[in-house]
Amino acid sequence: MDSGLNLILNNVSKHTMLTPAEKDIFTQMLQSKKLKRKQHWVATGDICRHSAFVISGCLRGYTVDANGFEHVLSFAPTDWWMADMYSLITHQPGSLNIEALEETEMLLLPKTAQEELYKLVPKFEHVFRILAEKSLIAYQQRLIDNLSLPAAERYSRFCSRYPTLIYHLPQKQIASYIGVTPEFFSKMRKGM
């Protein structure tokens, strides 16, 4: 877990500098979790009680519509955070499924510990505000892109946002993320 702790501390250090004592407080609140490929961490109807930081592997957040079609909302590769934010904040059952696309190791920060962390190390309010703001901006931009851009441009933006995943993910996951069928996606890529 030491390399995982270094990774998460480096992630936090992008937003604030922590003293050794503050690092200890934070790292003692973290819980290690491993998922097998295709294992769900959160499912529709669950109450999300943690934020997850990916140490290795990749998570995907998706919903399933009334016709059984999956709609990928986001991916969390190594060094990214993920949670069902609606459920985490409201303490209500969520509508997001979060699944490991491969064997994934993550560090979980319980919501209750996060609230305590704000009191013990107020710098973390700044850190999580920045993470929430970046997430909100990304979701807003993605919504605008999906409403106004052709599929090829949405794919280009996907490649910019997730450069490490382009050749790593199954094409059907990328197709779902950009809002096209796998067949259309395959034809589109051949034409590029």
UniProtKB/TrEMBL annotation:
<dbReference type="InterPro" id="IPR000595">
    <property type="entry name" value="cNMP-bd_dom"/>
</dbReference>
<protein>
    <submittedName>
        <fullName>cAMP-binding protein</fullName>
    </submittedName>
</protein>
<dbReference type="InterPro" id="IPR014710">
    <property type="entry name" value="RmlC-like_jellyroll"/>
</dbReference>
<dbReference type="Pfam" id="PF00027">
    <property type="entry name" value="cNMP_binding"/>
</dbReference>
<dbReference type="InterPro" id="IPR018490">
    <property type="entry name" value="cNMP-bd_dom_sf"/>
</dbReference>
<feature type="domain" description="Cyclic nucleotide-binding">
    <location>
        <begin position="33"/>
        <end position="118"/>
    </location>
</feature>
